[in-house]
Specification:
The chain is of the alpha/beta class. The protein is built from ten helices and 14 strands. About 35% of the residues lie in helices and about 30% in strands. The two termini are about 35 Å apart.
C-alpha cells in the first residue's frame, strides 16, 4: 500500500541544544491506523507538530500526500486533521457554528449535511445549539474531533484523544475511529492507554528519547515478543525455591505461596511438562494453575527499558 505520510531523516534540535527527535524515518500507509507509544517527553507530540507544520524541521523531509510540509505547506495541511491534547475552542460559540467555521477556514463550501453526519457520528447532534462552555470535558473533546473532520481530511492525527474521558465515552470514540478507517481515513494515534493501541492499531510504533525503537504490525509484535506466565498455587508457602527449581524462568511469588514460570509463546517447547514433574519431585503440592498472556503494555515497557540501557 502506498505511503500517504513519508518521514525521512527528520531531526528536531531546539536553540538551547536539546534534541527532541534524532533521525526519524517512518512511512505511514494510506488507510492504516498507526499507534505511536512512548513515555512523556519521548517526542510524539513534537513529531506530530512538525508533520502538521506547527513546529519547524531542523533536518530531514516530511511529505503528506506527496506534498512537502515546508515547501507546499497549504496543500499538505489541507489533507490533515489534527486533534491536539489541549482543548482549544471558543467557549461562547455553539457547537454547530464552531464546526462550520473550521470548515470555512480551509476554503471549503458550506455543507450542513456533512456537518450533521459528523455531529451525529460523534453523538453531538443533540448538542449542536449548545455553547461549548456548557459542555463536559468529554463532549468538548468530541467537538475537537468534529472540527478536525470538518474539512474532510485524508489523514487524522489524534494526540491523546481519549485522555480524561470515561470508559463508556472512550469505547464510543473507538467506534468513531473504526468508522473513519472504514472510509479510508489514515489515523495516527498517540495514547497512554495501551489497550487503545491494542484494540485500534494496525501497526504500533514505539518512540523514546527522540528515537523510534520499532514499528511493527500489532498482531505480529504480540506474537513475536509475547510471553506467557504460568502461576502454580501451592498448598503451603515457601521461604525459597527448592533445589531443582532454582533456574531461569522460575520465580517465587510475592507471598511465597506460588511459583511463577515465564516462557516464550513462540518456542517449540514450553517446558511446562518438565516443570510440573520437577515440582512433584520436590515434594510440593499444587492447589491450582493459571496462565497469563503478556499484553502490549508488557512489551512496550520492556522495549523502553531496553532502549534506556
Amino acid at each position: 500500500m502506498a505511503s500517504i505520510v513519508s518521514i525521512q531523516g527528520v531531526r528536531k534540535t531546539y536553540a538551547g541544544g536539546l534534541t527532541a527527535l534524532n533521525g526519524i524515518d517512518l512511512e505511514i500507509a494510506e488507510g492504516e491506523v498507526l499507534a505511536l507509544l512512548g513515555p512523556n517527553g519521548a517526542g510524539k507530540t513534537t513529531l506530530i507538530s512538525m508533520i502538521c507544520g506547527i513546529s519547524t524541521i531542523t533536518e530531514g523531509r516530511i511529505t503528506v500526500g506527496g506534498h512537502d510540509v515546508v515547501r507546499d505547506f497549504r496543500a499538505a495541511r489541507a489533507l490533515i486533521g489534527l486533534v491536539p491534547q489541549e482543548l482549544h475552542t471558543e467557549g461562547f460559540e455553539t457547537v454547530m457554528n464552531t464546526v462550520r467555521f473550521t470548515r470555512g477556514l480551509f476554503g471549503k463550501r458550506r455543507d450542513d449535511a456533512l456537518i450533521e453526519r459528523i455531529l451525529r457520528d460523534l453523538a453531538l447532534w443533540e448538542k449542536r445549539n449548545a455553547k461549548i462552555i456548557a459542555l463536559s470535558g468529554g463532549m468538548k473533546r468530541r467537538v475537537m474531533i468534529a472540527k478536525a473532520l470538518a474539512h474532510e481530511p485524508r489523514v487524522l492525527f489524534l494526540d491523546e484523544p481519549t485522555a480524561g474521558v470515561d470508559v463508556e465515552l472512550r469505547q464510543s470514540m473507538w467506534e468513531v475511529m473504526r468508522g473513519l478507517k472504514a472510509r479510508g481515513v489514515t489515523i495516527i494515534l498517540t495514547t497512554h492507554y495501551i489497550e487503545e493501541a491494542e484494540a485500534m492499531a494496525d501497526r504500533v510504533g514505539v518512540i523514546d528519547k527522540g528515537l523510534i525503537l520499532l514499528v511493527e504490525d500489532t498482531a505480529a509484535l504480540m506474537k513475536r515478543m509475547g510471553r506467557k506466565s504460568l502461576t502454580v498455587e501451592l498448598a503451603a508457602p515457601l521461604a525459597a525455591l527448592p533445589a531443582g527449581l532454582d533456574r531461569d524462568g522460575i520465580a517465587l511469588g510475592v507471598d511465597g505461596a506460588s511459583l511463577v514460570y515465564s516462557y516464550d509463546t513462540a518456542a517449540e517447547k514450553t517446558g511446562i511438562t518438565d516443570l510440573l514433574a520437577d515440582i512433584r519431585a520436590a515434594g510440593l503440592h499444587m492447589v491450582d494453575l493459571n496462565t497469563r498472556q503478556s499484553s502490549l503494555e508488557d512489551i512496550f515497557v520492556g522495549l523502553v527499558k531496553e532502549g534506556a540501557r
